[in-house]
Each structure stands twice: as structure tokens, then as C-alpha cells.
Amino acid sequence: MSTCGDAAAADDVWLSVDKVLIAGEQKTDPSLARCRTAARKGGVVNTSASFYWEDGFLMRKWIPPHSEDLGWNAVIQLVVPAKFRGQVLAVGHDHDFAGHLGVNKTYHRILRHFFWPGLKSDVVKYCRSCHRCQIAGKPNQVIPPAPLRPIPVISEPFERIILDCVGPLPTTKSGHRYLLTIMCAATRYPEAVPLRSLKAKPVLRALIRFFSTFGLPKVVQTDQGSNFLSRLFKEVLSELSIKHVVSSAYHPESQGALERFHQTLKTMFRTYIDDTTEWDDGLPLLLFAVRETPQESLGFSPADLIFGHTIRGPLKLLREKWGSQGKENLRNILDFVSSFRERLHRACECARNALVKSQLKMK
Predict the structure, then answer these.
(1) Which of 108, 125, 178, 194 is most solvent-facing, going by the fewest CB within 10 Å?
(2) pLDDT value at position 210?
(3) Helix (H, G, I), strand (E, B) or coil at 287
(4) What dihedral do alpha carbons 203, 205, 209, 212 form, nearest 10°?
(5) Residue span of the signal peptide, if any (predicted)?
């Protein structure tokens, strides 16, 4: 897997820049004048955003549009001076854990930790000028954005999972030629397992490992691949009391979310991997990028909806290194579990509402 120095360069970013430099630039950068004025006058710009000073740093509190109950899911952003914006863009787009994703995904990922006036236009310019993205190009296959009728909204993570297979791919040094892809229908949380064969036994072994982590689903949805229609596959699912739903060849859109993940993954492979015999080594980093990035249709990342908090990726590490840490939130285990359940319940409820709205727009 080729890094092109991205990871090393990103490491240098948060190791070399001192917090004092950030705070100093925030106080003098002309492009942040309106932000400073807003903070001085009480902070509130509109119902969803406000600026304030904390420990000498200019911060922004932002309520994402999918958060109906104002305040519970507020995002605390460090306001970035012009001098350091290129470094944020590099970490958010070029880092091995970032995945060289597109404009919208890169923008929403950065917005979870940082803000500056003109952020969206800067992300557009940066992504469009990325040399590796230009070389990789875009996938030729067009995947339908959504079914014509709304999909039933799933209530529990991993209650329903979607399976598919990708390949043959270039054979790796480990002998892998295929991928078994798995996606939670509710949260869009993806998994991809390298395989040497697509026969029923290796597919089932990979699936059992997945179940050992995330539990047994109620429903497994597949296409009409011979491995999924085999007697062994059906018997194992039956023994585990899992319903097997087979997508019609005439309605492939029912596998649409997983197909779009395939296209994203293939583009990431083309962008990152120079040695085609090592794609399986780079796969975990690419999966991290997809799991960490907010889904437009849900308003949250897949990891948010599984773990109940924003997982620590390169941008979060950069935000911690550069700005105010706020107060450490220490709780006993009962308070933590109660808070976690409440937060996860609210996040899933917001995600369901966002998904319904997204599907209605597609009708």
C-alpha cells in the first residue's frame, strides 16, 4: 500500500505546531475578524452556531441539522486561522486513515472538529486539485442512489445485514483474491474480509467471525450468488434461527447501499495502492475511513451509531493537539452506561428520521 508520505507528513503536522501559535494566529488573523466580533458580543450567530473563547482559544459550538433536540449533540470546533488550514485539509483528505474521499465526505469529516469561514469552498478546491484523486479517476459504474420506494427503517444495529462478494481481484501475497463484504442495514457499518475462495465454507467461516463480534442478526440479505444459495449456507443460517432473504435479480437496488460501498472501496484501492499484491494489507485503513465518515443520508458516521461517540481518528487527534481540551468528563460506570444508552438512542432516532427524509427526497 502506497502512503506517498501522507501519514508521515500528517504526523509532523500535529507534532510540530504549538498551541500557542494557534491561539496567537486566532487573535490576529483578518479572516477571523467576524468570528472574534461574534464571540465578543455574546457568540450567537444563529440558532445552530455560536462563537466563544475557552482557555485562550477561539471556539465554535455548532448544532448539526439532524439534531432535533438542540444541544444534546453539539459539536465543539476549533476555529482555524488561514496559516494552518492547508494542514487540516491534508489530514482530513490525504492521510492513510482519511481515504482520499470526495468533497462532501471530506467536508463533513472536517466539520466535526474544525471550522473556518469558507471551509466548504476550500475543501472543494483541495479535493479537485488532489493529484492522486485525479489519477484514480471516478468509477464508471453508476449505482442507483436509492430505491424508488422507502426501505423499512431498521430499529436495531445488526438486526439485518447485507452480504455480497467482490472479485476476482489481483491475487495478494497472502493468496487473497476476493472480498466478502458485510453491511449493517441500519447504521451502514461496513466490514470487508479478504478471502482466497468464494466457496460456501470460507464465506461461512468469515461470517461466523463477524457474528462473534456483533451478534446474530435476525435477517441476512444476499444476492443470488451460488455460495449464498448453497445447501450448507442455508442450513447454517437455519440452525442459527436467521432468516435468509434473497434479492431479486430484477431489483438490485435493494443491495444499493452495499454496492455504493463497493464503488467507494474500489476508488480508494485505485487511489492508494500501487502494489496490487498488497491491497489486503491496506484494507483496514480504508475501512476505518469509511466507518469514521458521516453518511449524508443518516447524519452520523457508522461508527457513531455503533459506539455512541466520535472515534479518535487523525482529525480528532489534531484537534486535541492544537486546541483547548475542555474539562475531563469522569463518571462512574452506572452514569456512563446510562448516558451511553441515552446518547445512542437519540443518535439512532435522529438517523432514522434523516434516512426517511432522504428516501422521500428520492421518490
Answers:
(1) 125
(2) 96
(3) helix
(4) 110
(5) none
C-alpha distances out from residue 262 to 70, 183, 192, Å: 35, 11, 10
Cis peptide before 202 (omega within 30 of 0): no
In this structure, the number of other CB atoms found within 10 A of the CB of residue 335 comes to 11
Where are the alpha helices (H) located in the chain, listed in sequence order? 6-16, 19-28, 33-40, 85-93, 103-111, 119-128, 131-136, 200-214, 231-239, 256-272, 279-292, 302-307, 314-322, 333-362
C-beta of residue 347 within 8 angstroms of C-beta of residue 305: yes
Q: Average the pLDDT over 171-181 and give the result.
A: 93
Q: Which residues of 5-24 are buried (b: 16+ CB within 10 A; e: fewer)?
A: ebbeebeebbeebeeeebbe
Question: Phi and psi dihedrals of 220, rounded to 5?
Answer: -115, 125
Write the DSSP string, 48-100: TEEEEEETTEEEEEE--TT--STTTT-EEEEEPPGGGHHHHHHHHHTSTTTTT
What is the value of pTM for the model shown? 0.73
> Which residue has 452480504 as its cell numbers?
163
- Quick one: which of 245, 232, 237, 235 has its CA closest to 162? 245
Nearest C-alpha neighbor of 167 from the set 195, 138, 139: 195
CB 89 within 8 A of CB 122: yes
| b/e per residue 243-257 (b: at least 16 CB within 10 A) | ebeebeeeeebbbbb
Q: 3-class DSSP state for residue 195?
A: strand
Burial tier of 137 (Cβ tally within 10 Å: 0-12, 13-18, 19+)? exposed
Interatomic CA distance for residues 157 and 190, integer angstroms: 12
